[in-house]
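Problem 3 from the worked examples.
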Amino acid sequence: MKPLFYSFLLIGYITACGATPTPPKSGQRAVLMNAEPNDPLKGQRPDPIVPITNVHEHMMGDSELEPLIAAMDTVGIERTVVLGSPIYTFKLGMNGFTEHDANNEAVLGLSQLEPDRIIPFVVIYPEDEDAPQKLQNYVARGARGVKLFAGHGASHGHGPFHTMPLDDPRLTAVYDVIKEHNLPVLFHVNYAKFTDEFERVLTTNPTMKVLCPHFCLTLRDTRKVKSLLDRHPNLWMDVSFGWIQFQAEGYRRIDVKPETVRKVIEAHPDRFLYGTDLVLTDYENKDEEWITMNMSFYRDLLERKTYSYYGLSGGPLTGLNLSETLLTGIYRDNATAWLEGLPVAPGTEAENKEQ
């Protein structure tokens, strides 16, 4: 503790002398897993430039609905995509892809309670023998999209997620239903680990509207992010990071190269979407204030030159400070295109750009 204590003393001394301390390099920032949540801008943020669509959230059940809606109202979020999930998503100590059918039912029920605010996505597990028919049934009952976890795990055959190649016939049968109904799909793929498989899926299904969250888990190398988007006009990404450790690490990566990340977004202004992935449960600390705070930090990342996040040491972080045009796309228009737009025909985007 002594080095950290003396660092604080030094910063205090420099500040008292009227100088501004130099922020630490991003790599020197520590992730503070046990930090007390704190929002220095609580109640001070203006309304977003347009009402926001949040394309990435999970909910355990209806007990989280009231605090979510209240937080959405405060932050300026008009609609939220709630994704069906296995129990593993909510209780990390529980292994196996189980209880996903029950959560699908819960998500469909939430959308009936708040049809204008909640957009229901069901999760499909390709190991289920009746997976394609399940999806057909869910669509008939109001499912607006699909969440797939294939490509999430570490290697083939080691579940509960990536248990088959992404172009396995069992997944292909699910893709066929997705394309039949023009459903958007949020596809949690670790691109760095499953590069070839994911590329084949995008190439052989050019009209399937795919969102790969968390910058497709490739933010360490923004060249890969840009290359993916350059080559696949049916691909979108969201700006969420997930669990507090991943959220902190994502903010830290952007803090060290904000101009580079901004240029990638500017190169593809129609392909990035706002998401949060806070994973809402009945855990008492995930209350309305906590939800509001963490949803707001994602706004800060996108809108501000500098901002604070309690999960990282070292003082203010550098934000992306995006233009109003880019924010309008990320908050509203790009989500509308992914959720409700027609499939992009091969070659169409390139032809339009040339014109």
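Problem 4, a separate protein:
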Amino acid sequence: MTNKGGAKHLKTLPAPVDWPIHRKEVKWVVKPSAGPHPIRRCFPLLLIVRELLGLAKNRSEAKTMISSGHVKVDGKEKLKDDYPVGSMDVVEISAINKIFRVLPSNKGLVLHPIEKGEKDYKLCKIVGKKTVENGQVQLNLHDGKNVLLKIGDPRQPKEDVYHIHDVLKMRIPENEILAHLKFEDGILGLVDRGKNMGIFVEVTKIVQRVWPSQPSLALTDGKGNQFETIVDYVFPIGKGEPWVTLPQDDSA
């Protein structure tokens, strides 16, 4: 018997809870294609155009708009309505001359309007790294992109100053590194998962633990409240000042 593989369709009831859909009025919803973000942490492009922005009345109108090249994600035209759009992605809608950055909030992912000067870069978290051919180092980013570091001497890789959980400020769509934010005490971040999702915090201390092996973070929010969460739940966004603009309610 052959392997069936994943389902190509998605019903509204098991869809992510933060999707703005009418679960009792319709049975099916577009399923995001395989891409840079997992299904639980993204929007298909159709939902952004039709539900979130109200630029189309039905899927046919939304598909026409998207396939005509009116929508860009991270500076590149996306022509498929099931393309997955996730955290920190920059969405530009030329039909209404507006630009948005996808950010986590206490209600899930939201579209935050940004100015034109901010559309040329995004923040990418390093989620993995490995050595590839000829001693070069490959950085794997949270949005599915990879960055290849040119190493002069593999025995003394002075160019490799990056670590997992660090954040890169990337020029888009060229995928060029503009700045490097080291993951350390005192950085600012957004909680992007869990019950505290969307809270703007300062990392007061990185707590190393024997079990579980992943360190936890002591955090302080804008109201002075203190709590802890695991390192994977925090997305660093700057030190001293955020590198991206935030919704007013999420600012410290």
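Solution to problem 4. The first helix runs from residue 45 to 52. The chain has three domains: 10-117, 121-181, 188-243.
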